[in-house]
Amino acid sequence: MGDAGQTEILWAVPAAALLIGYLLGSIPFGLLLTRAAGAGDLRSLGSGNIGATNVLRTGRKGLAAATLLLDALKGAGAVWLVAWLFPGDGPLAAAGAFLGHCYPVWLRFNGGKGVATLLGVALALDWRVGGTYAAVWLAMLAAMRVSSLAGMTAAASAPVSSAVFDRFELVLLLLALALIVLWKHAANIGRLVDGTEPRVGGSMPMTPGPPPVDDAPPPAQTDATPVPRSPL
After folding, report:
1. Is there a smaller number of Cβ atoms within 10 Å at the N or the C end of the chain?
2. pTM for the full predicted model
């Protein structure tokens, strides 16, 4: 086999790893589940996002939990499948699955924000990194009850924990994916700064706004008794 043929094979395997990851990651489980359950088009609800947090706005907690689980599993599954087919190329599948979720071609590249899928790929790449990610996510969610803040903090923990656990070959990949998570949360970051980001389980912002008009104090009463005029 000539050099050209060897070069084609060298490129074919990474390309296949990326493509498999992308195709699995691009399955929009949130959209499919809500449509199958008769909850309508998820993209016309709330933030328009296809992730679990927006599914929760339908009032279907079971659907939201299923979406989170499936979005994580498709990321992990892509890594495991490619690692079995092409040993050593799991990180490429991780990148492909994450990008497929965030930018699916089927939805005109308008996908989710990647928090659950990043959890899945982190668990598949190194269970310690994924476990740290899940712990940070749950701890922040329990403490602050703000989904976006919990997800961004968890994503930021991935490259840090990979360095702590001596998986330095994963640091740049997880850092890049975490930055994409932050980019996809740009609007949420703006609301966090303004103190208007809603909490999980309600629409109350993180900081209270001005009191409603109905709670304003009543106007001062004036004495309407006429003052008698002097006969002069």
Report:
1. C
2. 0.82
